[in-house]
Amino acid sequence: RMEGQGSYRLPTGTEYRGALKDGMFEGEGELLFPNGGRYRAVWHRGMPMQGKYTFADGLEYKDKKWHYCDGYDRRFYTEICSGLKPAGISQLTNLDPPRKIPEGCYDCGDGFYNPETRVIVDYELRFLRNA
Q1: I need a labelling partner for 122 at 20 to 30 A (CA). Which of 31, 89, 107, 128 fits?
Q2: Average pLDDT in the 34-58 region?
Q3: Of 44 and 72, which is predicted with more confidence?
Q4: 28 Cβ partners below 8 Å, 6+ apart?
Q5: If you compute the radius of gyration of the chain from its CA atoms, what whole number of angstroms results?
Q6: CA dihedral 96, 101, 107, 112 (to 10 degrees)
Q7: Nearby residues of 37 by Cβ (< 8 Å), 6 or more positions away
């Protein structure tokens, strides 16, 4: 069984680095996730007793007084209100369902931009302006 300081890579790509005892996480160690997040914890018999998760962008998760996506920070607002989409279904905007973008055009916030005609039309396809 694993004993002492070391690392262990799980089949999911997640890696544990830290103390091991009798084949289990024991003492200080961290899980490094493939998405860049990390969970540092004090472990006892493979179970975290006290820990902290840090997202890939450096934001630390707090289970109390969590101010991410509140009135001052609106990231992930739709996910909080409507729940997460199943894996493989992208949600690129807060609209659900998202707007249908005409082939070859780009959504520019107040309408669609057509690079061939260099014209911006609103979402009802009415002329707004030339680009």
Answers
A1: 89
A2: 89
A3: 44
A4: 18, 19, 40, 41, 42, 43
A5: 23
A6: -130
A7: 53, 54, 55, 56
Cα–Cα distance for residue pair 53/40, rounded to 1 Å: 7
* Stated length of the chain: 131
Q: The pTM is what?
A: 0.51
CATH 3.30.1120 segments of the chain: 1-82
User: Is 68 in contact with 58 (CB distance < 8 Å)?
Assistant: no
- Residue 79 phi/psi, 5-degree rounding, is -65, -35
The CATH code of domain 1-82 reads 3.30.1120
The amino acid that residue 103 corresponds to is E
Q: Mean pLDDT throughout 4-31? A: 92
Both structure tokens of 10: 């799980």
Angle, CA of 29, 33 and 35, to the nearest 5°: 150
Beta strands in 1-131 (DSSP E): 4-9, 15-21, 24-32, 38-44, 47-54, 106-107, 112-114, 119-121, 127-130
